[in-house]
Model the fold of this input.
Amino acid sequence: MRFVDEFRDEKQALLLADQIRKATTQPWRIMEVCGGQTHTIMQYGLPDLLPNEIELLHGPGCPVCVTGLELIDKAIQIASLRDVIFCSYGDMLRVPGSKGDLFDVKAAGGDVRIVYSPLDCLKIARENRGKRVVFLAIGFETTAPANAMAVKQAKKMKLDNFFLLCSHVTVPPVISGLMEFPETLVQGFLGPGHVCSVMGWTQYDELCQKYKIPIVVTGFEPIDILEGILKVVRQLEAGESRVENQYSRAVTRDGNKEAQAILDEVFDVCDQEWRGLGLIPKSGYKLKIDYANYDAEIVFDTDSDSVCESGVCISGDILKGIKKPKDCPAFGKQCTPEQPLGATMVSSEGTCAAYFRYGRLDLVV
Done:
């Protein structure tokens, strides 16, 4: 397939792996920020092509994995209401809350629906005016513009039965948060290609300067990732720390100005709770006051009891790049994609799910 196969070419991959080996003179730890990159790394066995000195750390780049436990509990409460049609992307339905998940609500008779776009929810709201339609809006800067547009359209259409339960997160603050952890192991980053296609990459300049780390904006195919690793290694070996753009076919310096404009119109920046990482200042989006009537957290009265994670799950340390699935005694035993203890086992972009799916038992046993 044109424009795909060329980025999965075996000879090119082996050539890049050889260049990485030749460029590497000492151990380096590199973190990919995006869950899509984690998925590709495991699917194509890229760690097997790298020299032993290069260790890939898997960061908090899966939006399903980092959606806060308290918000999942709110989603379950709202979805259980009789007058609610609760809409979500499919991979959110199995994310464990403190007491069950959205599949449990659906099994108990709740009207929980899988959708493929927030615009699907507008159609559902128009056709069910006697119901309140709630969309679980998660994701990084990549998915936020579409959700912002849905709210803007709802206001234009005067739909008073459509709401967002919002848990949007942003990448630069979490990179800063990761680097501030005393136990951090990260020495360089593969930057998130899809996020940067929307936001551009200028906001990463300050991070490179502050933490003396290279950040290479990278795509999602095997050749993209190997090229990104090579660029990071060359910077590390040279003692450099700047932003490079490997994903030039999709990412420009300034990004998508129209998408950024709709974000600025609909959302305010806010502090955000990240599952496994805690509260990260100015790392999320919330609806502006002009759109408060569409904010499910304001409209619906939900309990806010303190919640806690499974005592066995180590997904927080995995998201920080401190541990790997092999370090978790529950991996593949008490915790599987069908019965996950933590969110990193739920989504195909979660680190634990990727290890489990692609049989990285050599990295687990």
